[in-house]
Amino acid sequence: MKTVWLLLLCASASALTPQPALADSDHELARELKQAGDILPLEQILAKVQKLHPGHVLEVELEKEQQHYIYEIETVDTKGNVWEMQFNAKTGELLKSKKEK
Question: What are the pLDDT digits (tens) for 64-84?
């Protein structure tokens, strides 16, 4: 299972503010996959995340599992709970949502 780091997002007090921490090759791969229609734009997935668990994004990864890409997103909600969610990167379908202990 190959992990492609997309973004490392820092929690901010006021809003979702992405702080890119990408290697050039990771960024290029993500752009190529998006342009080919193999993955949805990250912004669409983050909008779903905010509806499910409003708060701040801590980390985003794009992983290839078998033949599919998965967005793995970790957030902290407004109550301080940390959530890990997985989305099908092509369809945006929520595959898993787990509250961390």
Answer: 988 899 999 999 999 999 999
Find where tokens 């290029």 sit: 28
- Bridge partners of 5? 61
Count CA within 13 A, CB hemisphere, residue 64.
Answer: 9
pLDDT recorded at residue 23: 52
HSE toward the beta carbon, residue 88, CA cutoff 13 A:
11
d(CA 42, CA 44): 5
User: What domains are defined for the chain?
Assistant: 2-99 (3.10.450.40)
Rounded to two decimals, what is the model's pTM? 0.74
Rounded to whole angstroms, the Cα distance separating 81 from 37 reads: 33
